[in-house]
Amino acid sequence: MTDHIRFVHITDTHIMAGGKWPLRNSNMEFDTDASLCRVVETVRSLEPAPAFAVLGGDLASPDILYRDRTLTPADYAPSYARLKEILAGLPCRAHYLMGNHDNLEALNRALRPEASADARCFYAFEDAGMHFVALDSHEPGHADGVLDMAQLAWLERDLSAHRDAPTIVFVHHHPWPLGHAWMDTMTLRNGPDLMSLLARHAQVRWLIGGHVHSEQMIQRGGLTFLTTPSTCIQLSKLGGPTHFDPGPPGFRVVDIEDGRLSTYVVYAR
Ligand SMILES: [Fe+2]
Ligand SMILES: [Fe+2]
């Protein structure tokens, strides 16, 4: 293992080409394009530069602009194209996860050209002696998430084959309620299945999620669950009438040295 590896977790970018996020119960709109640009600029200023970025889902969300109909992959394409354009400014390669707002076919065509258009977006990769796993908790038409039996079986095989490598797992949805009445209607429905699977693999010490647009760190047994703020709007702390507050955009820096993880969140003001 090398001495040190740094990566960034950037999530809930919610790019909607040609539009801005209309905040509920207010007249405000939030420019998710501009806020992601600010985040990318801030990532570029990190010393040392990250080895890679993980994009944690809800990457494009033109569906927020058209809640009255189901959008097609073609409807999503301009948003992923714009996302790709902004992320080209990152100083490192990127790995992508699906969130509840994403469209698999459009994401694959824009961001994972090596995958077939209908390939599910779960996979593993290695870096610096570490093992990293990206899960796909997206279920079309649902705001909450699920991991189907085939994906859980794949995860069991993958982790069994990498017992000696310290492992970080990424998933969009939170696997248990976090105490926010609205957000907790949109958990990972079979979170307990995921947690009992991970508990059988002691090398998995960290689980990193998005979706909740807020910064959390929760320890359960040998596992630490981290969530990362959105690059756009953040969850209202007290569950106020608007659900979300405008910004500030944030992302997470993760440093691993000799198998020990340290992390902090950066807000791009
Ligand atoms: Fe989100
Ligand atoms: Fe989400």
Describe the protein's architecture and organization:
- Helices cover 21% and strands 26% of the residues.
- It is built from 5 helices and 15 strands.
- It is globular, with a radius of gyration of 17 Å.
- With 269 residues, the chain is of the alpha/beta class.
- It has a single domain, classed as Purple Acid Phosphatase, chain A, domain 2 (4-Layer Sandwich), CATH 3.60.21.
- Helix 2 packs parallel to helix 3.
- The strands form 4 sheets. It has a 6-stranded mixed sheet with strand order 6-7-8-9-11-10, with helices on one face. A 5-stranded mixed sheet has the order 5-4-1-14-15, covered by helices on one side.
- The site of one fe (ii) ion has 7 residues, from loops.
What does the secondary structure layout of this molecule look like, with pairings?
Blueprint: E1 4-10, E2 21-22, E3 29-30, H1 32-44, E4 52-55, H2 73-87, E5 93-96, H3 104-111, E6 123-127, E7 130-134, H4 149-160, E8 167-171, H5 191-199, E9 204-209, E10 216-220, E11 223-227, E12 234-235, E13 244-245, E14 250-257, E15 260-267
Parallel strand pairs: 1-4, 4-5, 7-8, 8-9, 9-11
Antiparallel strand pairs: 1-14, 2-3, 6-7, 10-11, 12-13, 14-15
Helix pairs in contact: 1-2, 2-3
Give the overall silhouette: globular
The bound ligands are:
fe (ii) ion
Largest sheet: 6 strands, mixed
Mean pLDDT: 95
| Straight-line distance between termini | 35 Å
- Rg over CA atoms, rounded to whole Å, is 17 Å
**Element-level helix/strand string:** EEEHEHEHEEHEHEEEEEEE
Question: Low-confidence spans: pLDDT under 50, at least 5 residues?
Answer: none
Q: What's the structural domain tally?
A: 1
